[in-house]
Amino acid sequence: MLLFFQRASALLPKLAAFDMDGTLIQGRLVFALADQFNLSDKVRTVQASGAAGYEQTSAIAALFAGLTRKDVEDAIESIPLIKNSDQTIAALRGMGYKIGIISDSYTLAAGAVAERLQLDFVAANELQIENGRITGRVDMPLGWDRIGCFCKISVCKRYHLEKFADQFGVPIENTLAVGDTKSDICMIQRAGVGVAFMPKDSEIRNAVDKIVPECDLLEVLEFAA
Ligand SMILES: [Zn+2]
């Protein structure tokens, strides 16, 4: 069976990119962390500031200065996976997909989720940590600056979708992208198949025609070739 899957994947390389917060996990890491350390009001103020996405990521990381690596690990551990995410990943793997996370959260969290689901790639922001404590500085991969994407967020999903597709030798038309907010629009519009999973804002609802309104990730497979 394994041999068959490997052969199928060699013939038809495909790639699936998932957003993390609200798409693979039932919540948002930044909110879980902020709730726990009474920073929710400050996080919301940043988010309401109207600053570009990457500037908000930088300002929010600064609020978490002094927390420990374990605080982040515990926060991500406390958030359950979306219903049927394991089965969805297994089914996609069986169809020959390389699968990963492209998230504007943190590598500490996205890496843990990727490990739980045994995924192939991760792109996210890297919190700088010194002596086990978050410094408040964050390394942001960006990417929109290189391809002229409109998103201006800390991890341009379209740039990273193209990057991973290239890395795994997958034509862009054989890619699947799944996300739930406006930050996912650039990736969803670029992918061969782009799906909005339980869309959270009107921007993504208006920009994407393939929508899964139920909280069941298996429904995404309806759109996957
Ligand atoms: Zn972008």
Polypeptide structure, described:
By secondary structure, the protein is an alpha/beta fold. The protein has a domain at 2-26 and 81-128 and 140-223: Rossmann fold, CATH 3.40.50.1000. Helix content is 41%, strand content 20%. It contains 11 helices and 7 strands. It has helices at residues 2-11, 29-36, 40-47, 53-63, 69-77, 85-94, 107-116, 144-147, 157-167, 185-190, 202-207, and strands at 14-18, 97-106, 121-130, 133-139, 175-179, 193-197, 211-212. Strands 4-3-2-1-5-6-7 form a 7-stranded mixed β-sheet, with helices on both faces. Helix 11 (202-207) links the parallel strand 6 (193-197) and strand 7 (211-212). The chain is globular and about 50 Å long. Zinc ion is lined by residues 144, 149, 151, 156-158, 186.
Summary of the model, kept short:
The protein has a domain at 2-26 and 81-128 and 140-223: HAD superfamily/HAD-like (Rossmann fold). The chain is built from eleven helices and seven strands.
What does the secondary structure layout of this molecule look like, with pairings?
Elements: H1 2-11, E1 14-18, H2 29-36, H3 40-47, H4 53-63, H5 69-77, H6 85-94, E2 97-106, H7 107-116, E3 121-130, E4 133-139, H8 144-147, H9 157-167, E5 175-179, H10 185-190, E6 193-197, H11 202-207, E7 211-212
Parallel strand pairs: 1-2, 1-5, 2-3, 5-6, 6-7
Antiparallel strand pairs: 3-4
This protein binds zinc ion (ZN).
Residues 144, 149, 151, 156-158, 186 line the site of zinc ion (ZN).
